[in-house]
UniProtKB/TrEMBL annotation:
Residues 23-277 form the EAL domain. This is EAL domain-containing protein. It comes from the Bacteria. The chain holds residues 439 to 717 of 718 of the full protein. It comes from Sedimenticola selenatireducens.
Amino acid sequence: AKSRGRNNFQFFDATMDLRAARRLSLESSLRAALEREELQLYYQPKLDLISHRVVGFEALIRWHSHEHGAVPPDRFIPIAEETGLIMPIGEWVIDETCRQIAQWRAEGYDDMPVAINISLIQLTRTDLENTLVGHLHKHGIPSRLIELEFTESVLLQDFETAMDALQSLRRLGFTLTIDDFGVGYSSLNYLNRFPINVLKIDRSFVTSACEDQDAAIIVQAVVNLSHDLKLSVIAEGCETVEQLDYLKRIACDQVQGYLISRPMPAADVRQFLDSDYLY
Ligand code: C2E
Ligand code: CA
Ligand code: CA
Ligand code: CA
């Protein structure tokens, strides 16, 4: 038993070394990613369930690394957050989103707000307001065209700082969304205190709503609660017609999901908007 324990330990150790090495290698590649222009934004449409029109997009970062291939954001965003690389990367996302909005406007498309995902560190350790306003001015676009998505954990980590930041962002005219609502912490206590505009129901509830009565009850309750609090409500991860019909039936305002469209590069957005996407 003793020797087996030691072998297990050695195996564990080697695995840890491999993972640590791979992580270090990802980290050093990520440091170079901005300069090498390996980052790109994809855009996923938000469909309004009353007008049946696309009323905005969410910007989602993509990294095509020369060394590692396509690395999903769930893998590299945590590394960026731990190393501080999220500051320049987050600012690049803001700049690129504003640039793209300005380009769509110049091309004559209807104004469509684009939502940006904001990390905790961006909210608490940088001057997010000034960064945003600076890039709005640079590209000549109004704040109403930018939505900011924060997860509950981001907002509850440091309540006072988050509250101050949200209040000034709201005053500046940005639309504020609570992302992934329903998982992790529960911010029911804070919902009516944070100056937010939109609740986004987490994909896990949407996925199970049509099979699981409890999930359906939660989704329905979140929609009602949002409306009672004068918030708009959007569901993410809608993949089937059944889910779409259900969300429509319970008066959810908007949906996002593969059923409407996967996130796509800016070049495909024009074609998408010009086509008769009908649901
Ligand atoms: P999120 O903000 O919750 O974004 C939704 C994720 O679900 C995206 O994954 C999107 O591609 C995916 N998705 C959309 N519709 C469907 C669907 O119908 N089915 C399924 N299975 N998935 C769907 P993605 O693009 O891999 O992003 C993962 C996470 O990475 C995001 O979760 C967000 O937390 C983070 N992230 C992405 N871009 C950024 C960014 O620019 N900045 C920061 N700080 N975080 C980002
Ligand atoms: Ca999001
Ligand atoms: Ca999510
Ligand atoms: Ca998320």
